[in-house]
Amino acid sequence: MADFENFDVLFAADRSFAYGEQTITKILKSRRLAHNELLIDKLLKTLGVERPSNFYPPRSNQSLRNLHSQIIDGASPDHHKQSLLYYILKDTLDHSRSATKFARAVFLPEKYRIFIDGIWLLDRGDFENALGYLTEPVLIPTFPEEILHLLCTHPDQHNDKLPLAYYYTVSPAITSSKVTEALFAKLALSSVTESFFWCRQHGEPSHRKFFEQLIYTVLDGAEGESRAMRSVELIHLPFNAEEEAWFGAYLTEGKGMDLHGAKDAYRVRAVATGKNGSIASGANACGNSGDHAMDWSSLGSSYEQGSMTSAR
Fold it and tell me: What is the value of pTM for the model shown?
């Protein structure tokens, strides 16, 4: 087994190795984009390293030696320490060779190697490749809420399907309200119907809050065919009596009354559910006019083509 506790043995290829300025700059930028905490920071904290940002990224060879000492002196099991050293070796210029060689020398368990490969990529903003590792069945989910929140909120992560792919593959138990809200924001953009039934998994007041957020997301979407079709899908969801009341209240007297398409959505829902008699009073209460609302012609076309199934 390699003597990973000896810095000069671990970095035998270049005992004077230090991170380059470009590498340091990239890591610092990645930390800022990740809400000022990388996943390596969280791992260092589990080893008892206080203020990980003071140690990583190391600014000199001596700083790297100090980081090595912080890891080695921790009270965690050896494979946890080895995992962090494996992460650091991936930062070196010949990271593939050095890190792989080290992992083999210390017999680092596969699940630890896979996890570190995943978070190393995630910390560098390579989200799609990171998920290829972090969704491996062999892994026991570690920091799943933090990873999910990062996938939902990172400013450089623009694929709305990635957080959902992680969520449905890993099935993390979400206890944080901020993670729940961030996930629903992505879900509402991805699937109207799926979001609707997801709302029902939550009791009041969360059910109503998410339901109204779904309405807002659909009607506030970018103008065009996609918004019209998503509006049609929203209008024909199987609301229960309570949701029907929320829908009407939100569009006629609540925060949604000034949304583009509020009046049209209310009208078409009434037609589709056979409640035509309530259109006039409710629609008149909506704050915007049809002339500045959703594309009524697109809705009408969808209706005629059978996308909308009116109650008869």
Answer: 0.83
